[in-house]
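Deviation from plan, reported transparently: pyridoxal-5'-phosphate complex.
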Amino acid sequence: MSRVAYVNGSYVPHGEAAVHIEDRGYQFADGVYEVCEVRGGRLVDETRHMDRLERSLGELRIAMPMARRPLGMVLRETVRRNRVRDGLVYLQVTRGVARRDHAFPKPGTPPALVVTAKNIDPSKGEASATKGVKVISLPDNRWERVDIKSVGLLPNCLAKQAAREQGAYEAWLVDEDGFVTEGSSTNAWIITKDGALVTRYADTGILKGITRTTIFDLCKREGLRIEERKFTIEEAQNAREAFLSSATTIVMPIVEIDGRPVGNGAPGSIATDLRAKFHEVAEIV
Ligand code: PLP
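Because the crystal trials were delayed, the predicted structure below was used instead.
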């Protein structure tokens, strides 16, 4: 089955999909993106992803490429044309194409929009969750506005690659004071011995994950307590459980941090339960 991408108004074969060399996303990483889980052909938490897209664009003074409703239709059409049942839909908006100059192009330059979608075999994530995953820690050397879901991901790529090279699933990033901010593409969580879920508060120092927000809803329903505060790698290693979250990993139990087992070294029961129940509270349309 051949894949199809949406590029600035047209659906084109994935292998031929291209943007101009002076697209500001290509030149300056001057753009933002979103990733939505697709489940049974439907979008998970679309409203929250669209809210965050609008916020990211607003912070960078890039216009929405089209209104929300037609954008939702493009996302669904891309999912449909790629016959995605379970997987993800990716969208990227850049400040558009203009002669290379660091300053913004002239007003009215249309933002560029690219949408792709792909199937992901759900059994792969389930296998990882059953075994649990390993994380390593690295210094957080990103800029100070990582609350914006920018396509400028070079430090994140370097961190993920370092994790892969050390046989780990994710790298947890640690700030100058020794506190974990988040993972290279996921939010970071621990569960204390008395059963409280701890995750860093969402200021400009982390990306406020949509999965994170929906986990808050699930915890409320389940009567679980959340503490939004900083924690260290040492606290995480001594925690009852640890896990990471994102639209593509949902809740992924962590069994080892920097070579030390978390809890009894097996996926924790609370994280495993949250993973099983996540889609009961998520918006799926
Ligand atoms: N933190 C970072 C740096 C990310 O890149 C992502 C997702 O891509 C997340 C957290 C999790 O966000 P979400 O739950 O919206 O996927």
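The mean pLDDT is 98. We consider this an acceptable substitute for the interim report.
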